[in-house]
Amino acid sequence: MPAVRPAPEPVVPHPPAAPMPPLLTQSWLDLAFLHWAADPADVAPLLPAGTVPDTFDGVTYVGLVAFRMHRVGALGLPGIPYLGSFPETNVRLYSVDGRGRRGVVFRSLDASRLIPVLVARAAVRLPYVWSRMDIARSGDTLTYTSARRWPGPRGARSRIVLRARDAIGEPTPLEHFLTARWALHSSFFGRTAHLPNVHPPWPLHRAELLECDEDLVAAGGLPAPAGEPVSVLYSPGVPVRFGPQRRPRTGG
């Protein structure tokens, strides 16, 4: 008989465990979260081995997340002011591994700094791509633009304009599902890696989507989104640490 997969871990707004001394530190600022419903059958072939689509009421989601990466640092060293700070736009999916651990799977990560793109592609095998990007703010309206340079498909682009609204006191279960993700899953030299992260609970705001013109989702191997996103959120951001998860203490 096939092995029975454990039930996925609960969705919680706080990280489930503290990491060891962090491998990476960074801040994610001025985030736009756009999400569309997706068919798990379309998502499953795009996930790393041993993971399956994570679903909410039988539906999985594709996310387009634009933000400012701020002062990336490694191994406890201070964040780098220039090379470690840049706009970024991700296409991401949601996964569960064979131990029930939920995560994010990135189909692409557009960034405007070439050196961090090269380092991330070589060192951790994440699908970073070099793009021409900008984030502009006018009052409570933010505009995120991206046009891909390398490795391609050249010219793949996105333009997101949203207006941040009131803070959310208590996110809905779906909003927690889409944002409270405490790890990433990635293919790493033929194996599936699980890298935890910790950060404070998301400060989320309702947002009004004024414009969305993009083809990054289709460039990531997914069907192009049909219609308006089912969820549009904004967050001013959080500081983040990535690292191996601390093992729980056992009684003795």
TrEMBL record:
<dbReference type="InterPro" id="IPR023375">
    <property type="entry name" value="ADC_dom_sf"/>
</dbReference>
<protein>
    <submittedName>
        <fullName>DUF2071 domain-containing protein</fullName>
    </submittedName>
</protein>
<dbReference type="Pfam" id="PF09844">
    <property type="entry name" value="DUF2071"/>
</dbReference>
<dbReference type="InterPro" id="IPR018644">
    <property type="entry name" value="DUF2071"/>
</dbReference>
